[in-house]
Amino acid sequence: MTEKENIYILAIESSCDDTSVAVLQNDTVLSNVVASQKIHKEYGGVVPELASRAHQQNIVPVTNQALARANIDKKQLSAIAFTRGPGLMGSLLVGTSFAKSLSLALNIPLIEVNHMQAHILAHFIKDESMAMPTFPFLALTISGGHTQIVEVNDYFDMRIIGQTLDDAVGEAFDKSAKILGLPYPGGPLIDKHALNGDPTRFEFPKPKVKDLDFSFSGLKTSILYFIQKQTAKHPDFINENLEDICASIQATIINILMDKLKKAVKQTGIKNIAIGGGVSANSGIRSALKEAENKFGWTTYIPKFEFCTDNAGMIGIVGYHKYKSGQFTDQGITAKARYSLTS
Ligand code: KG4
Ligand code: ZN
């Protein structure tokens, strides 16, 4: 391969409830199609059995759409990249099997991708309007399934320095929202109601977790007890105080995240902070990071929202860097529901 030759990667993501396929030309995303599965809304959370069925229905049309939008023919593809894990086994199996078949049929290399690495390397998707982080940096990945702080020294040299011991931060938002009677996923709704609320009105205890780890399950319980106690006295308590309750919950969660980030900066001496995952859409975390830029001299990076939530573009960028360094896999590969980014 000469330097000038273009690399075209078709990337597949199916770890949870989004079926996504992207086509990349080198580090540029030409198309990134995401089919979100609405079905789970009725159940108040992701139902694994329904998720894998929906992936099976979606994967072929989503792939065709991604190729069409990119205006790329299958024959032009250099390799197939796919999410091997972590995630829901039934969901991962659909993407893994499909990727293996496609690579076999087209006789092109196969590249396995760790979903958590992909959330971090999403920052290296080319975007004229945004700078890419420089190594080393700290990555905070916050979503409905993950909460991690990772020290990133190079594309494939990462070290987890903190993570949740129970619920993910997105779950903390969603479960709190459920207690308040808000529909799933409630994170964006808490954010919306928090906008006009008083974040100091109610106080919720912050968990005491050592080092850089997190715990969110206790917060959910204390919110539940608080709401039960108040509604027993005033049945309309939630309605009358929704904005202040949401603002107070959000402030508590953001404080927990920022405290750990500050600790991580202190421990590592690294002031480049990159965040990813669906919760990075939260206006509270965004303004806390902006404030930290001015106050502590941090440099912060937030990718476009389309690359923050689960998407195949981020799988493709890992595929591109693995392609360049010759990291391919064979047809014997299997999906891995538990898959650490350092394994
Ligand atoms: O990355 P993502 O789309 O999927 C995974 O969970 O992997 O993240 C979804 C999570 C949900 O928990 C959702 O409530 C949360 O991100 N979320 C938010 C906001 N937007 C999405 N949480 C708080 N504030 C938001 N604005
Ligand atoms: Zn994810």
| Computed CA radius of gyration, to the nearest angstrom | 21 Å
| DSSP helical segment count | 10
CATH superfamily of the largest domain: ATPase, nucleotide binding domain
Strand content: 15-25%
Low-confidence segments: none
> Main sheet?
5 strands, mixed
Primary descriptors:
five-stranded mixed beta sheet; binds zinc ion; 343 residues; binds 5'-O-[(R)-(carboxyoxy)(hydroxy)phosphoryl]adenosine; 10 strands; 43% helix; Nucleotidyltransferase, domain 5; globular; alpha/beta; 2 domains
Report on the architecture of this protein.
This protein has 10 helices and 10 strands. With 343 residues, the chain is of the alpha/beta class. It has 2 domains: 3-123 and 308-324, Nucleotidyltransferase, domain 5, CATH 3.30.420; 132-302, ATPase, nucleotide binding domain (Nucleotidyltransferase, domain 5). Strands 3-2-1-4-5 form a 5-stranded mixed beta sheet, with helices on both faces. It has a 5-stranded mixed beta sheet with strand order 8-7-6-9-10, sandwiched between helices. Helix 3 crosses helix 10 (312-324) and helix 4 (169-179) crosses helix 5 (187-194). The two termini are 29 Å apart. The mean pLDDT is 95. It binds 5'-O-[(R)-(carboxyoxy)(hydroxy)phosphoryl]adenosine and zinc ion. Residues 16, 143-145, 170, 173-174, 185, 187-188, 191, 277-279, 281-282, 309-310 line the site of 5'-O-[(R)-(carboxyoxy)(hydroxy)phosphoryl]adenosine.
